[in-house]
Amino acid sequence: MRRDDRISDVPRWLQIALGIIIGLFAVLLTFASVMLVWDTVARTPFLSIAVGGTMVLLGGWVIAKAARLTLGRPIKAGLLSPRALRVASIVVLCLPICGLFTGYVAKHPVRAPKQAIIYVGISFYLWQLARYRTAQLSNRAPR
């Protein structure tokens, strides 16, 4: 493994421990999501299946990242690629927008704006991190 392909700040034993813990947690949550898909809610079966299916896919993605941590797969510019960071940024930005349509903002008038500000901040941070990692990858490109 080249020096550039590993996380230099984190010891290998900690990567393995975190990979195992995150992997077990992801398996548990993925199993719970599968139960959500199988045991659909009678009032909104489509929404239950859509949310459950999305959560199963996200759980599988987290399990893959945990396996990558545990097995020590090469990491070019961090555990998540710039594209994955941008997708996560957009998903986080959609959370407060979905809160408007689901009635969450009306139900929690004090908490919802604070959460929306935090979500927007997290989204901008993830986008900035993706931009930084893209620049980092382009600097390493062979010339």
Summarize the structure.
By secondary structure, the protein is mostly helical. It folds into two domains: 1-75; 79-143.
Question: What would you say this structure looks like, in words?
Answer:
The protein has 143 residues and is an all-alpha fold. The chain folds into two domains: 75 residues; 65 residues. The chain is built from five helices and no strands. Helix 3 runs antiparallel to helix 5. The longest helix is centred in the last third of the chain and has 30 residues. The radius of gyration is 18 Å and the shape is globular.
Radius of gyration: 18 Å
Q: How many E-type strands?
A: 0
Poorly predicted ranges (pLDDT <50, ≥5 residues)? none
**What's the average pLDDT?**
81
User: How many strands, which pairing sense, and closed or not: the largest β-sheet?
Assistant: none
Helix count, DSSP H or I runs of 4 or more residues: 5
The helix content is over 70%
Envelope shape: globular
Termini Cα gap: 21 Å
User: Helix-strand pattern, N to C?
Assistant: HHHHH
Give the total of domains.
2
Q: What is the structural class?
A: mainly alpha
The share of residues in extended strands comes to under 5%
Question: Which tags fit this structure?
Answer:
single chain; 5 helices; 143 residues; mainly alpha
Topology, element by element:
Elements: H1 12-38, H2 45-71, H3 82-102, H4 104-107, H5 111-140
